[in-house]
Amino acid sequence: MKAQKFSLLIVDDDEDDRFFLEKAFHALGPHYQIHAITNGDEAIAYIQGLGKYRNREDFQFPSYIITDLKMSPGNGFDLLNFIKKNPALSIIPVVMLSSSCDPDDVRHAYLLGASSFFTKPSSSAQLGSLVKSIHEYWSQCQVPAVDEAGFAVHTNSKGKAGEPFPKPNC
């Protein structure tokens, strides 16, 4: 099933970066519900629906996440590690958007389950182009159905290619 909603979680400690990312996504049309937050710990609370993020009507489970790497408390690796340790949440596409182009950072991001890694562009025009590419890609992807809490909806694998593989508990 293709993504039906565009609920985007932007995680970045730089206020200007959050502003320009939101502006670039809103320029694509009115279909995005965007929540921009400042660090990995807050992103984990958002994903879990804890505290001020409890109301899923106001804070929809994200269709995908764009996160910076170097933040505190909780950096992009911490966020990826949390998602990886919770297999029922691992269906969330996570796009790493960092000022780092260190090969070790790129490698670690993919080892922890990042869907993609981009170095932050230096101009707003380049950022707009990158955001458009990200949007076009993720809006066309097939993604598993999720419940209101964001967990993958149970499917029946009996007699199908996925039958021999373990399923996460939702």
Question: Can you characterise this structure?
Answer:
The protein is an alpha/beta fold and 170 residues long. It has one domain (6-140): Response regulator (Rossmann fold, 3-Layer(aba) Sandwich). The protein is built from 5 helices and 5 strands. Strands 2-1-3-4-5 form a 5-stranded parallel β-sheet, with helices on both faces. β3, α3 and β4 form a beta-alpha-beta unit. α2 (40-48) packs parallel to α3 (76-84). The protein is globular, with a radius of gyration of 16 Å. The mean pLDDT is 89.
Distance between termini? 19 Å
Report the β-strand fraction as a percent range.
Answer: 5-15%
Rg from alpha-carbon coordinates: 16 Å
* Total helical segments: 5
Strand order, largest beta sheet? 2-1-3-4-5
Assign the CATH topology. Rossmann fold
CATH superfamily annotation: Response regulator
Oligomer: single chain
What CATH architecture do you see? 3-Layer(aba) Sandwich
CATH class: Alpha Beta
> Which word captures the global form?
globular
Residue stretches low in confidence (pLDDT < 50, at least 5 long) are none
* Number of extended strands: 5
Number of discrete domains: 1
**Share of helical residues:** 25-40%
Q: Order of helices and strands, N to C? A: EHEHEHEHEH
Give the structural class: alpha/beta
Q: Could you report the average pLDDT, rounded to the nearest whole number? A: 89
Main sheet specs: 5 strands, parallel
